[in-house]
């Protein structure tokens, strides 16, 4: 079985990875980091702005960044199989779609929600994921370097 982690390199995502690794050891699962690439890049609550670099170059950059994170995690956690996947689309919908057939989806709580409330991606996952969803609060000291 697989534990899916929504991963964007943020402190919240790193905290989610830490907890996902613990759960993977408990259940003898693999961990898959998923970076959801959305183009054009969102720059505000309801706006988008085309960027100056081509989409393909930005996508490859996301792949390289994720590959470095996966490599670092695999080296530091040889007892847990870790891999990564970059997908393109709206984060909430893509993570929900990928939740089919996995043991657990783990995400950090650090979204753009107001007053500490979960952001729209987290709220969507809690309603639409096809497996349990674990939301990890972002706190100092609970994040793995990745």
UniProtKB/TrEMBL annotation:
UniProt xrefs under InterPro entries: Rossmann-like_a/b/a_fold, USP_A, UspA
Domain of life: Bacteria
Domain UspA: 2-137
Transmembrane segments: none
Pfam family membership, one: Usp
Descriptive protein name: Nucleotide-binding universal stress protein, UspA family
Gene source species: Asanoa ishikariensis
High-level lineage: Bacteria, Bacillati, Actinomycetota, Actinomycetes, Micromonosporales
């Amino acid at each position: 079985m697989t534990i899916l982690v929504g991963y964007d390199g943020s402190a919240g995502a790193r905290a989610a990875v830490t907890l996902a690794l613990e759960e993977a050891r408990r259940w003898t699962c693999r961990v898959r980091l998923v970076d959801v690439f959305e183009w054009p890049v969102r720059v505000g609550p309801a706006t988008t702005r085309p960027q100056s670099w081509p989409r393909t170059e930005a996508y490859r950059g996301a792949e390289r960044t994720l590959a470095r994170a996966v490599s670092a995690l695999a080296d530091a956690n040889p007892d847990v199989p870790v891999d990564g996947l970059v997908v393109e689309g709206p984060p909430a919908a893509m993570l929900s779609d990928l939740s089919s057939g996995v043991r657990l989806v783990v995400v950090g709580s650090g979204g753009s929600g107001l007053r500490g409330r979960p952001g729209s991606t987290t709220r969507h996952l809690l309603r639409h994921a096809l497996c349990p969803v674990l939301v990890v609060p972002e706190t100092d000291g609970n994040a793995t370097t990745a």
